[in-house]
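Lecture notes, unit on protein representations.

Consider one protein chain, 103 amino acids long.
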Amino acid sequence: MSKKCELTGKIPMKGHNVSHANNKTKRRFLPNLKKVKFTSELLKRSLKLTVSNAGVRCVDKKGTFDQFLKTVKNKDISPRLKKLKKSILIKSPFKKASPAKLA
């Protein structure tokens, strides 16, 4: 299992533990990942995703999972969610987008 958020693209960072004597040892800062179930109202299905706490807050801020996927950039999300985003944009009642522009 990769330690990467499927919504925001957050990955582990590198850094140092610094002692009082200023000795530095390498360490990793891991993102706060959780398994979360999201439901898509347009597609009428649910997904289980590995998401960081910041990713859950981003979805809450947008209102719904569908609204979040419409506005997020493709470079941040996982390949699985890119396909889902394309199908949500096609089924969206407000804005019709052609599949050629979405790729």
